[in-house]
Amino acid sequence: MKRVLVTGGAGSIGSYVCEYLIQRGHEVMALDNGPSLKVEHLFDSGRFKFVQDSILVKDVVERLVDQADICIHLAAIADPKRYVTEPLNVLNVNLKGSLGLLDHCSRRGVKFVFASTSEVLGKNPKVPWNEEADRVLGPPNINRWCYSTGKALIEHYCHAYGQQEKLPFVIMRFFNVYGPRCDDLGQGRVIPIFLEKFLKGEPVVVHGDGQQTRCFTFIEDATQAVVELALNEAALGQCFNIGSDRETSILELAQTMKRVGGFANELVFKPHLEVFGKSYEDIPRRIPDVSRIKRVIGWEATTGLEDGLKRTIDFYRQP
Fold first, then answer.
1. Mean pLDDT of 30-53
2. Position 25 in a domain
3. At residue 188, does pLDDT exceed 70?
4. Based on the structure, what is the number of domains in the chain?
5. Has 147 been annotated as catalytic?
6. What digits encode the pLDDT tens for the residues 81-108?
């Protein structure tokens, strides 16, 4: 049995990771500054502890790390609209908070499993992206890139602590994770934003011409990857893409959700500038090369997009 600290443990991915770790027989501490609603079903397990606080609070972080064998660091501000409107908050949480956690894990010899993002590669046009692909970003005065830059710097720190301080670490780059209870409707990523409109019978807004593409990863597949990477010694010191390699345009996504859910909503188009302002830049294609994670731990996404969307829509349709 391992003692695992999960930051962001009551969030979109974190709540599933906590649940899966409990099912696997481990002891879990979840740190999150949000409400406990998504993890309250774990309270009676006897192996789960929830701490409602921020990763910016040093004493809290150090106390929890002192009790852990592994830290799975998922806590972050990851909402594209907040990149644009709250760049300072995004940098403080994603960079300063992560550095404090990383430093204490290094001093205590606690394995650090870091949730990075496909965003670190920016707008590199050479897809699919493997883990060593070049980063291609816009200028620092475009707020859109503060999230990518903060995450990439923590990746640098992981490698530096690993090299100089012998910190055991694993880096994970997520590609558009979605599923039941992942997000509040209308918030965060594209699927819950679309789904809120579909369920309300309102026009669904597609940004740009909708031809930009993403690869969507069902939450249960992503959760299995996180836990296996955290527990598998073969993953140490490496970075891994976590995602499906099925490329889907945003327009195709909206059309698929409409068909799978039996909706009749109108699809309308708005320019990115009108939605996000001048401090946002979209990425035309984002596709992972997932050969490394398959080779090292034998993982691959198995849930098809239509099946995952149906399960997600059915969940949010519940009263």
1. 96
2. yes
3. no
4. 1
5. yes
6. 788 889 999 999 999 999 999 999 999 9
pTM of the model: 0.93
HEC string for the chain: CCEEEEECCCCCCHHHHHHHHHHCCCEEEEEECCCCHHHHHHHHHCCEEEEECCCCCHHHHHHHHCCCCEEEECCCCCCHHHHHHCHHHHHHHHHHHHHHHHHHHHHHCCEEEEEEEHHHHECCCCCCECCCCCCECCCCCCHHHHHHHHHHHHHHHHHHHHHHHCCCEEEEEECCEECCCCCCCCCCCHHHHHHHHHHHCCCEEEECCCCCEECCEEHHHHHHHHHHHHHCHHHCCCEEEECCCCCEEHHHHHHHHHHHHCCCCCEEEECHHHHHCCCCCCCCCCCECCHHHHHHHCCCCCCCHHHHHHHHHHHHHCC
* Domain annotation covers residue 310: no
For residue 111, tell me if it sits in a domain.
yes
Q: Which residues span the domain enclosing 70?
A: 3-178+216-244+287-302
Indicate whether 281 belongs to any domain: no
From the candidates 16, 20, 83, 147, which is the catalytic residue?
Answer: 147
What rounded mean pLDDT belongs to the chain?
94
Which CATH number characterizes residue 127's domain? Answer: 3.40.50.720
Tokens representing residue 26 in the block: 């481990």
With a pLDDT cut of 90, the percent of the chain lying above it is: 87
Cα–Cα distance measured from residue 197 to residue 257, given in angstroms and rounded to the nearest whole number: 11
Q: Judge whether residue 196 has pLDDT over 60.
A: yes
